[in-house]
Write a structure and sequence with these properties.
Elements: E1 8-9, E2 12-13, E3 20-25, H1 28-39, E4 52-56, E5 61-66, H2 69-72, E6 91-94, H3 98-107, E7 111-114, E8 120-123, E9 129-133
Parallel strand pairs: 3-5, 6-9
Antiparallel strand pairs: 1-2, 4-5, 7-8, 8-9
Length: 137
Amino acid sequence: MTRSCAGLYFGYRLAMRLRSTLLYVKDLPRMRGFYSEMIGVKPRNETWTDSWAEFDAGGVSFALHAIPADIASEIEITSPPRPRGQNPLKLVFEVDDVDAERERLESLGATMVQRPWGAWDGIDPEGNVFGIRSPES
């Protein structure tokens, strides 16, 4: 799709634009570290740091929110983590070099899985599935 600066697609003005995403996590310090390394930026929030981490992810805000302790205590995270394939949401990140990024993510501890159609998905330390794609795909 071609988009102009005015936010038009095929001559129609967008009614909405994605502003942010939020991922609930059991272990906020661990996940904050993982995603900080993955995205390559430190969280931008200076308040609520015990329950919240917000990143600038290239024009979209990406946030992590700690699951309340009473709920988190009921969640089991295995090692290695089981993919949460039943989750109806998957974050997809655009990268310049998929092969180099796959190797870098593996070095951070992500499990990377090549899909039958050639795309790469990763599994974060809590089992959330994310994708990496090149600008051309």
